[in-house]
Protein 1
Amino acid sequence: MAGFESACFASSNIVIASVVVLLLASLPGVMLPSARVGQACTTLLVVIAALVGIPSSVVTLLARDTTAWDLFWPLPYGPAQLVLDPLAALFLLPIFLISCCGSLYALRYRPARGGYDRVMSSMYALLPGSMSLIVLAGDSLLFLIAWEAMALSCYLLLIADHHQQEVRDAGSLYLIATHTGTLALIALFALLYQLTGSLVLPASGSLSAVGPASTIIFLLALVGFGAKAGLMPLHVWLPSAHANAPSHASAIMSGVILKMGIYGIVRTVTLFDSPPLWWGLTLLGLGTVSAVAGVAFALGQHDLKRLLAYHSIENIGIICMGIGVGLCGLSLGRPGIALLGLAGGLLHLLNHAIFKALLFLGAGAVIHATGSRQLERMGGMLRVMPRTALFFLVGAAAICGLPPFNGFVSELLVYLGLFRQVMSESGSGAVLAALAIPALALVGGLAVACFVKVFGVVFLGTARQPLAADAHEPGWPMLLPMGLLALLCLLIGLAPLALAPLLEAAVSWHPLLQQESLSLTTTAPLGWLTLMGLALLGLLLLLTAFYLSRLRSSSCTTDATWGCGYPAPTPRMQYSASSFADGLVGLLAPLLRPYGHRPVLPQQELAPASSRFSSHVPEVVLDLWLLPLLRRLEQYSSFLRQLQHGQLHLYLLYIFATLFILMVWALW
Amino acid sequence: MVVNIVIHILLALMMPPLLIGVINRTKALMAGRRGAPLLQPYFELARLWRKGSVFSRTTSWLFRAGPLVALAATLLAASLVPFGGHNPPVAFVGDLVLFAYLFALARFFTTLAALDTGSSFEGMGAAREVTFGCLTEPVLFLVLVALARESGSLSLNGLLSHASGEMWPYGAAALLLMVGALFILLLAENCRIPFDDPTTHLELTMIHEVMVLDHSGPAFGLILYGAALKLFVLGALVLHVALPFGIGEGLLGWLAFCVGMLLLSVAVGLVESVMARLRLLQVPRLLVAAAALAAFALLLTVR
């Protein structure tokens, strides 16, 4: 036993070492004379950090112990602390994994040729480095500094193609949104400081959840962290940012950065001894709204990456539903429900990191080959890049929550938590959960519709526009990360039992969840899932062998697709992405507000002249609510602009005056 | 125990085409015709299995995989539903979610296979299939939630045996609403009238038939067989909720189950004889109505 303990202590030190390697990896990108060599060194260091960091994080997680380090910190706010506890160790896993896959992918996807590329390869290491600092931060100041470093390095990655106006706009929107969120966080930490008298984050369960201060802290966390996670009314920055970033940056943004928002919410909740029921119900409600609206907006998109971005909102919604159910279970004193909900939410978080990164990397390969993000210009890519297509198909099935892939496991846990809550409770808890179950089913159905559309339009049929002559399967640095992520999707789906101890350890902060008898293996049918997954694959193999033997012994001919007698079809006659989604977009029109230009055909003429048709689904919250509101606000507050005149000496005067007033106030 | 499992598997494998035969015979009799033999669907499957195949030049491996994945998923779903008063071969806590998602898996691959042909007709069929699928899945889950709340069980077996055993005397109102919702679901999921007409192949208002236009020979046989199996599995689900008494066990129980399934197909045939197909735009309304029925049932149980 002593050996194991010392191994754990060693492992937590190794975790810190790999985070340091990750942070150091940002240096060669900008400092080495050759951009190419710099990128290679950065990638090597990031991969090493992942190879060392993932196993040591797993060991630390399994040991369930907490290690703290005090840092040398010459600022007058007390010591800076790094704390590695099970929850932090769990969040380190996607950070290491996705940064490793993304930087390998970037070697071929965006080889550094100097100029801004150097900044990019450097930021691709600084970003995961600062995120690992966020989850390790044991005090507010370090947390905020790491948070800001993450926001800025993400911004620098996002504006890689800054010669395009669209990209610059997306960057500015992101910057405004993230800093608005940070404002809420500063208020949150100030309140915490008032409660505890120290900037060091209080131990888990040490604060009382009674009283107005805790309510305000929870609401501030919802706003500040929810904006980063992309919860539905606060998601306005997300679609354009994900769409306009380079694909490997989108992968890490969607796969990991959004999860930092979830981390913040979960971490805030762990500080309190027993969260009131309405916290859980609020998260459950917000999550349901995000999930349904996210996937509904995804259906209406024509831009491949924008569509994937809306799916991130959907999946963040599902994660929040899980965590909401878990909190309800905690406040109702039902450890079974709490475990199912929290473990389901956290597992979905890991799963979403894996399959969404896979989908963004696959989308990047396709965009690389077609030169466009527009779905309507693609088609037939399965013939050009069969391996990418297979990996993308795995990701698509996983994100729809289809068995035997990983998405199904986590959605099943959330479903079971919801079902148990309906069965064991009465009143608002039962009603909200009872409504959330069919909503989750609707989300599943809409996700299937959306990904059938995406995969069908991008990879199946024939190309709608002539491809570049050299369009081909990407090289191994791009295929390897995709293959690895696809394999993980299948493995987690087939053997979820392997992850059960990790999830149990990660949620063990609450005394209710520390009972020995409580385990995921008894509350959820994880062993059965392995059996059923293997049975499904076995049945499929059997049927395939049966069918192939039949095909071999009978005649097989090939011909053109049956066009109901029409002899000369063209690729443009294929069903398009918009027409595929049109029925559902029409049904959801009150939410999506689609608009478009429909040509009016003159009745008299036999052969009408050529005309154009366009349809579009706007970002409703931003375009129809927020921007008009801000414009109105601007009208009333424009007189304040006079304060901002660009004269440096007057700005200095402002600072001096503020300091003076504060000093007078303090000395009063 | 083992005997029951063997009978379960044999019934699931052998009986589904008979339901189609009964439906067609019912429709023929209602129309004043004599109709095809009851075993005609079996003959057709055998004929298709012997035939050669024609593949479109645009299709890939996914087109060939579609029917196989769909059938494998449906077969697995068949192992989760109790037939009559007997336990299914597989039952565990949470299998109801797997049951629903296996059908989603089948739908995912069937529609992808349709899009693989690059034909706009099949694209239309696929689009309709996923659109209506979005509306049917919540209905199924609403019913499952209501039944789970009443029975206190989270496996299909416990859920359904409670419904046909103990629940009718005190929960008849909720169960009647559920039967209505589930019967509409059965018709919609299996593309029967009033949602879809399985007999007219080349009309552009079709869903299922237009999706499989390009499949031929053995693959088409597998698709038809899979469709019959889906009718059988969902039919068994409806039968359980609809029967106000538990079907006994043993040989008599199996016999009663088979008779019940045949009566259910007669009911489907009667509906098809007296109704016309709905206009496509009205289909969502009927599905929302089914969701409303199920939601009322849930309301009665949650209260």
Protein 2
Amino acid sequence: MKEFALIFRINDINFKPSPEQMQERMNWLAGIVAQNKLVDKGNTLLPIPGSAVTVHANNVTTDGPYTEIKEFISGYIIVKTETIEEAVELAKSNPIFKIGGNIEVRELLKT
Amino acid sequence: MTAVLCRHFGMKHIEIAEDIASDTFLKASENWAINGIPKNPTAWLYTVAKNKSKDHFKRASIFESQVKNELTSGKLQEEQHFEFDSQQIADSQLAMIFAVCNPANSAEAQICLALQILCGFSVEEIANAFLAKPETIKKRLLRARANLRNDNFQLVNLTEADIKSRIETVLKTLYLVFNEGYFSKTNDQLIRKDLCSEALRLALVLIAHPLTNTPQSNALLALMCYQSSRLEARINHNGEAIAYEQQDSKLWDQSLIDRGNYYLINAFDGPEISKYHLEASIAYWHSTIVDGNKWQHILQLYDQLMITAYSPVIALNRIFALAKVHGCEKAISEAEKLDMSDSNYYHQLLGYLYADKDIEKAINHYQLAIRMTKSKVEQQTLRKEIERLSPSNQICRNKGKQF
């Protein structure tokens, strides 16, 4: 089994999920759990000023997350599957695409 | 309420606690019928119970002091402090669950005890649920209660060690109470629902306490939520069972499925995978309509279950999933390897698997199954299935097509 991080990105900094949207995400997660493919529920990362600072070289800090390409990481989870294709399949049914977000699938380096 | 009182009296005096509790509800039904239901019914009930307990102890202490002088300064003289806040109620219920689920008693006796002490069922109600004679249940309960008294389980401070040593028995008992309702032999829909919702309520008590809010408890609760979501859909108005495939999924309770998802995710917060995890996962797939691979997932989970918690029922259910994934032919050859011809479910399964291939064999198996089951509901359902398959009906159906 390989492990993959699913990294969620959205572009609307003010996005607050409705109860229905949260439910939809939870139901998606339950589907992964029910295949015993979840390694770590991960975390949601707050993007708002005061909760996010980016540290650069030479002691320079900027407020907010690193948003070079106008989108920021909103959270991640870790799944286990045989292949990356399987992990991609899991990601495809996530409701994040309905709000213009995307998911990066990255294999974890196992030592 | 009995649980809270027992915490003060100890398991030895469970009868007194029960008497006070039922007296209290009697008084409530008299009083509320005249004066209406009070603003805070729970508080009202507990205040009455509190006073009744104090009266009891006063009487008891007078009795004791007059008959046995040496006890005048004994425990019973102490002013009893009764706290009936919600924390107390929750703690007492939890402690009571652990006291009742005593490994000294058989599984059957534990279910009966749980129903009587934790859920307040009468002997008649329990007998109805089990399709047994009230006398039998009464005897079973008496023996089980004697065991509880001898054990003298500490109700006041439930320690981590107590919880660890018994949580497995507790989960199993709740699981059995739930199944007793879900797969009940009675066609009384009310009893079925009562049993299921009581088991759910008790599982919620476990989740509410940090020491018992374990991955396994969450998995069991998730399982109960998923199964309960289909309670309405799986029985028709005549009390007959409706096969899963014929259920109207619009009748499934989505809010219960959502709750199930929540607890299922919590259950997988850690490396442990118990039988409840696997069963809850299977129930998840039964509660979802979207995924085309669902039978494959289910089959995989049954494969795991076969390793961790083999039982004949699981073996048969696995074959059903196998038929869904690999077809009836493969399933039949695997089923016949099992050699469980003394089980009615085995014949039900083979009846189902043969239905499209060999009607005569299918009917044969269904008839064997009918002879082996005591459940009227099951017999009814199987007879219908035979009727549907029987040759005369087949001809009618074909004729119908021609016209």
